[in-house]
Design a protein that fits this description.
single chain, 7 helices, mainly alpha, 161 residues
Length: 161
């Protein structure tokens, strides 16, 4: 249910991000090239986060008892990170597949018709990384204890502020 809720949030804010990217684009820059580069970057970042999340899900749990609360929360955050990252990789690849053979005019028309889809990889990547960080903190709490876990949380706060 948590992963489905995350997917709905991604769908809800996707068009906002694609409109924002188009609004801040400089005059004279190709819309097609801008979106193509954006999709490529978001697909690569999501794929990298996805590989780490899959490895985290297959590695040892953060506690000895796999049915403990910390293990359940850890796995929930891993799944909540996996779903948007996978969505981002698939959607970015699919949009690039359709966008690359088009010229600038046709690309602009294609982007206009599918504007809500072009923001999805960016927002999904942000959500995936946001869900990845608590999973990493929970793993640190479970393996190394509260002192190192708190240091991890302070470090994450400092990096994301």
């Amino acid at each position: 249910i948590f992963a489905i809720a995350i997917s709905l949030v991604v769908k809800g804010f996707a068009e906002l991000f694609s409109k924002d990217v188009l609004q801040i684009r400089s005059d004279g820059k190709s819309t097609r090239d801008t979106m193509s580069n954006n999709l490529m970057n978001m697909g690569i970042v999501s794929a990298l986060v996805l590989t780490v999340v899959i490895a985290m899900m297959q590695a040892d749990p953060p506690a000895e008892e796999p049915r403990s609360l910390i293990c359940g929360a850890y796995m929930a955050f891993c799944v909540a990170s996996l779903v948007p990252c996978l969505l981002s990789v698939i959607l970015a690849s699919q949009l690039l597949l359709y966008l690359e053979p088009l010229d600038d005019t046709a690309g602009h028309i294609f982007i206009g018709f599918n504007l809500d889809y072009f923001g999805e990889p960016l927002f999904a990547t942000l959500v995936g990384v946001t869900m990845f960080m608590p999973a990493l903190a929970l793993w640190t709490f479970g393996i190394y204890g509260f002192q190192i876990g708190y240091i991890m949380c302070i470090g994450q706060w400092y990096v994301t502020r």
